[in-house]
Amino acid sequence: MTFQENFAAWLAEPSLPTAMKYELADMATDQATMEEAFAAPMSFGTAGMRGVLGAGIGRMNVFTVRQATEGLARYIDTLSVEAKHAGVAISYDSRYMSQEFAYESAAVLGAHDIRSFVFDSLRPTPELSFAVRHLHATAGIMITASHNPKQYNGYKIYGPDGGQMPPEASDMITKFVRSVADIFHIKTLTTRQLRDRELMAIIGEDVDEAYYAQVATVTIDPQLVHNFGKDMRLIYTPLHGTGRIPAQMVLRNAGFEKFQLVPEQGIADPEFPTVPFPNPEFPQAFDMAIALGKEAHADVLIATDPDADRLGTAVWTGSEYQLLTGNQIASLLLHYILEARKQAGTLPANGAVVKSIVSTELATAIAEDYGVAMINVETGFKFIGDQIKHYEETGEHEFLFGFEESYGYLIKPFVRDKDAIQSTVLLAEVAAYYKSQNMTLWDGIQALYAKYGYYAEKTIGVDFPGVDGPKEMAALMTKFRAEAPTGFMGVTIAETQDYKTQLRIKADGTSEPIDMPVSDVLKYVLTDGTWIAIRPSGTEPKVKFYVGTSADTDAAAQDKLAGFEAALDAFRQEA
């Protein structure tokens, strides 16, 4: 069907809510918006779906949420009666329609006699991952658009291990979602029917307490925290999201007494009124925390995104607050974990760290220094979760830490996704560690550079908005493969890693297979150790370019980074 035909079908649907009818009336004179909303359904993959709120097959609304849940329900129907009884844990964040979408999901599941366990109020994504495992549920649903702007919402599905659904199950669910012919008349039960038939349970404090008990084990050196953490000044902001209660709870439980909440940003407001984007990697997200930090003479500022799976920080340099990158935060956390466990005599001989292929090689240098394996996986935290599951089944390694450069970290595997609550309490401990040496976190990262070399990385996002965006993104990737570069800035490419063809191609033309899932990613490793990677985003209409390099001094590393970025941009413009 054309987008005009899809639009007409929605316009004629009598069950459409009144507000949506008004929205369609406005859209009738806006062909561009109509095409964007009705040309194609939202992409539904291993990370679920994410999109702008509103009417249309390409937007987040009650009908597309029911369709997604119907696909999940049909998948669970193929499993067993026990799987249906084990049920689905459901959580949601502070965005518009999040609670409504959570209850609509339970209503669709109940129509298939599948139980649901719905949180009594908003909770972070990592606690949903924990709840799936804690309740031994068959699956989990998290209603969130993570760090996207206020116009968005999303729908993420988790498997029984608490990680995002593996590709095989996700592909089956996607087929079931696409097989729903009439999204307007998907069977649902009322909340009263769900409760009367014991197909819906409300969960809350019982799961919170179990989660907090596990987070308490993240603290490695309680005595250090007692001696130095209790007087350390911290500023925390949840950026209007789910982190306010859990982050404050775990900090207090660990022994950090002098932390302050940015009060205006502690309100769970779907407008995110104090920030242009609720994303802790953006400097503007820290404006209010910095102002409060200066008043309180704070040592560390911590921000988590709306669903509290990502964490960013700004640290005092002696003259100002400086934001750290996700790679820098991960390197500090990793070094502390390994050093503290080495000092305590608990560093295992078969320890392993897992990171994405586009994350810093500083972490690799640190891991090698401590005799720990570094395992690289494709971008997407589900792949880190897959490694954890593999280690549990085989005993090959003991998981010590996992991270992605995009501000996501996991310390203990009782959660199988990024966990900013765990990361908050550990980062505070790391700050206490450096305070015990009369150092700041800024001093700490400089000390790591001085020891292991100066590493510099940058992620560049190129937007492809509109209905033609996906085609343009695909064309760009095709161009890079068809007109493959041989080098950048005069430095030769030693190896091209193509995760779509699953081949590692050497400069002499020889190749060997890559034992990783198929993914539309290209990575170039240059003869000087610099690497460049390109991948379409799985959640946003953009292609991401990554550059990582190193040198003997910070200035030299930054110069190289700028040079390679310019060379990459020039090649892209030609392409």
TrEMBL record:
Domain of life the protein comes from: Bacteria
Every Alpha-D-phosphohexomutase alpha/beta/alpha domain range: 42-179, 226-314, 326-452
Classification via PROSITE patterns: PGM_PMM
Pathway per the UniProt entry: Lipid metabolism; Glycolipid metabolism; diglucosyl-diacylglycerol biosynthesis
Top-level enzyme category: isomerase
Pfam family name, one: PGM_PMM_IV
UniProt xrefs under SUPFAM superfamilies: Phosphoglucomutase, C-terminal domain, Phosphoglucomutase, first 3 domains
A Gene Ontology BP annotation from the UniProt entry: purine ribonucleoside salvage
EC number(s) per entry: 5.4.2.2
Co-factor(s): Mg(2+)
Domain Alpha-D-phosphohexomutase C-terminal: 508-557
Keyword Isomerase listed: yes
UniProt record similarity statement: Belongs to the phosphohexose mutase family.
PANTHER family: PHOSPHOGLUCOMUTASE 2B-RELATED (PTHR45745:SF1), PHOSPHOMANNOMUTASE 45A (PTHR45745)
Record's protein name: Phosphoglucomutase
